[in-house]
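Re: [help] complex structure
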Amino acid sequence: MSIVLSNISKKFGQFSALDHIDLEIPEGELVALLGPSGCGKTTLLRIIAGLERPDDGKVLLSGEDKTDHDVRKRGIGFVFQHYALFRHMTVFDNVAFGLRVKPTKTRPSEAIIRKNVHDLLNLVQLDWLHDRFPDQLSGGQRQRIALARALAVEPKVLLLDEPFGALDASVRKELRLWLRHLHNELNVTTIFVTHDQEEAMEVASQIVVLNHGKIEQKGTPTQIYDEPKNDFVSQFIGHTNVFHLENDGDTWLKGSSIVLDNTDGITAHVRPHHIGVEKLDENASSPISLKDWQHLGATIRLELTNDEFKGTAKVIYAEMPSDQFKQSRLKKGDKVALFIRQAHWFNLEKPHVPEAATNF
Amino acid sequence: MSQSQIMPGFKPALGYTLVYLSLVVLIPLSTLVFNSFQLSWEDYVAIITHKRIIASFQVSFGSALIAAAVASFFGLVIAWVLVRYSFTGQKLSDALIDLPFALPTAVAGIVLATIFQPGGFLGNLLLEGFGIQVAFKPLGIVVALIFISIPFVVRTIEPVLLEFDTSMEEAAASMGASRLQIFTKIIFPNIFPALLTGFALSFARGVGEYGSVIFIAGNLPYVSEIVPLLIVTKLEQYDMEGATAIALTMLVISFAMLLVINLLQHWVRKRSGQ
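Output below.
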């Protein structure tokens, strides 16, 4: 089922949670609503579900205006952040709930319900837990049961609110891939909310980046990462070095021998892996030296300091493959030369730094 | 308790608890039991099976059960309204709930008797309109007991409703459940254990209630005489054995009924995996 949101606005008191949102999601996509906390992503998801009413605007599902339809009549499946499993029911009864509350005319027989529920539990690989209660399950298991329960009513859209937020790192990684595979299998239009850019990149086919109730950018993970539309997106997705060239300390970037593709802006964002680092002689005149480095697995993160400058370029982060790092024989305190291969330039009055941006 | 405990002071705490329980609860109650040993079994049975006594037991336990049931229903509604909606005067209403706790029960009894007596404001209305007389009838006892037991129910259900995860309701709605289905299948099963606790507390309070009841009951032998009143009557007649026998019987029945309610509660919780 395709989803069209047109001109959606929502206020909570004075706070504007969503500000004239227009968004189209074609059928079968796996979309991430990504943004820092308080950006309105969960509100948007709840409006699509019908759990929240927009102050203004329309929600079209499969081309039909469903703005005034209750959540009961939208044919959606919703997975809550903290799962919202019915704690007084067994896993089986939880999953069967959606089928058992159907009106008598459309309710399947108990035998069919039984079969469907076991099929769903097998799909999420947890049929062996069918007679347990939610309190007896681990977080990852609860999440999968919540998903099975949402799928039981055969929704045309699956909505997930921070689906992996409450799980520990290893389970989260596993479930991300699992959700992606499940989506490929079921091909139900799926939207999930997350504040974790890695999660969005890894799982989604389309990412919608939200900030302050507005859509900053929409596109595939590749588009979002390689062609960020503004400094917010650039900083929020992945790691980046931010240089403000109006700052005296950073003018070296423009004037230096560093090759930059263009310089039409006052703020340059440079991804760590777009910075090449070369070891220099001890006697060389470079002001940049290797202060520290960290092993991140396949890559090595280099922390470079620039003693002569006071601006944002005082500390520069670069990354290189660990093999290359070994060959280069770099060690702490070495003088280095930098080569910036690519930068994104933004013209900004006032740079705004996102709350949840992970700047190392 | 050979395992080392995280919290220190298990032994002094247990000791304190036992001493306290003994002084305040166990010793007085066991005195009751020991005192009753002065009676022979035959005498005991003779006292207990007296028609007037049996009638009073029926009145006491019957009206306490009915009152607890009614109070549970209304208490649930009140708690629901206080937790789920916001309206002007909410804090004031919330404070009013506790009033029956604070009011001397005799005052409550006199007030209830005054308004529910045939000449009283509500008593007149009910008598003229529906032909129902409340005061000086068993119904009056039930009314007085409802009055004093409502706060028990409200205060036991309120925290559970406050804590209730409303996303469970949203989840049920997203799967197409109607409002009624959400209440009967999701909300009610989750607050049922608390409701049972409220019921048990109301019932226990109702069985032992004296002050508010005697003014409105009319205290007619065989009709509207409660057990505590009979105990007081026996004591006034210096019939210590009689009073002890009745009190002991009351203790045993109350204990048995509370035990049953607790077992029921345990069963409900276990069935729902809590």
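DSSP finds 13 helices and no strands in chain B.
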